[in-house]
Sequence to fold (291 residues):
Amino acid sequence: MSPPSPCVSVIIIVFNGEEFLQQAIVSVISQTFVDWELLIVDDGSMDGSANIAQRYADQDPRIQVLFHSDRKNHGMSAARNLGLAHARGEFVGFLDADDVWMPEKLAEQISILKAQPSAGMVYGRTLIWSSWADGEGSDFYYDLGLPPNKIYEPPILFHVLLANKSQTPTTCNALIRGSLTRQVGGFGEAFTGMFEDQVFFSKVLLRAPTFLSDRTWAKYRRHSSSCSAQSAAAGEDEKARLAFLKWLNAYAARENVQIGTRLRIWREVTRCGKKVIANRLRRSLSNRILP
Fold:
């Protein structure tokens, strides 16, 4: 007889993340809400990540370690989708191996979603965490873009995401109904790194009402080896965003998204495209000037 399904499926993805993985796992184990399963997806790590994950799985029957069939690296989206394929919970929460949850996250978010049956997702503030290393870095928050502690109908929060000026859902912060993750088809596996989360959350925010809270439920660790830091250092952010916006433009047309929203998307495609061209010209001129 199979065990009863947990209330929440937690999915941690990890690729060579042994430095921080234990802290992420402990932040799940330390939740005040205990009816969860933790699915740790090892995305082809070559360090000790899998051993760390398995050690915790051996100690707690709620924890399971998953691998791709070929044990290779397939990217963030494919790793999250592998976790979703095994998820049994009514609700789903994601956590990257270098981030951590606050102890009340699940308890408070489940309470909100149960009190707001029309909401498909809830998210709040994410602390941008720089002080983890030496206690001297400056932690901060991004503005939420809209008044919190209320539910928003589509596409209001999607428009905030599209504007790219405020904090929108983060994988470490949001809690989503499992049924909604299936309705939107999970993560887009063509996006292996940057903007893979934006692809998923765009689909969610275009489809379902979402509750926006002012509570802090997660810490997003800033460090030089993160995907976003490496993209910024390489000057690839705008190019990656343009690829996302072009996908979004095609998706919105395919899904018959209302024309006003589609026009907003097209304006962002045009604006971002101009930035990419300008950056390319600057690099070209710089290379010609340098001896």
The beta strands are 8-14, 36-42, 63-67, 91-96, 100-101, 121-129, 150-152, 175-177, 210-221. The chain has a mean pLDDT of 92.
